[in-house]
């Protein structure tokens, strides 16, 4: 085989191989990125017991609409569970301002400590529209 044709086949093989790796890498990236960033609801489902999750979810939905940076303009309450003062959440982690997992851990602990459980906190919330 002439050297020119051999070089062309080798170059084609290298390009095809690189294209395959690029396509493979591109195929893996979105799945990896999605797995690295679960929704706050999915995080809560891993932390809060199943028999308490619906109540926990109701409170968080009403308080912050699952917005990690939700801020009450009049009180300054902040985050998923609307901590007041917001800095209370530092007890659950230094990343409390932006990490939904930290905020969920704090809110779950708050509900357990103050009311005994998310179910009891939700019962209180239904009567008072705050918790």
Question: Would you write up a description of this structure?
Answer:
Residues 54-122 form the Transglycosylase SLT domain. This is Transglycosylase SLT domain-containing protein. Residues 1-35 form the signal peptide. It holds the Pfam family SLT. Keywords: Signal. The chain is mainly alpha-helical and 131 residues long. The protein has 2 domains: 1-37; 38-128, no CATH class. The protein has helices spanning 3-36, 40-47, 50-64, 100-115, 118-128. The protein is globular and about 35 Å long. The termini are far apart.
Q: Mean of the pLDDT scores?
A: 83
User: In what range is the share of β-strand residues?
Assistant: under 5%
Tell how many strands the DSSP assignment holds.
0
Annotation field: number of helices: 5
Signal peptide: 1-35
Protein name: Transglycosylase SLT domain-containing protein
Keywords: Signal
Organism: Kitasatospora nipponensis
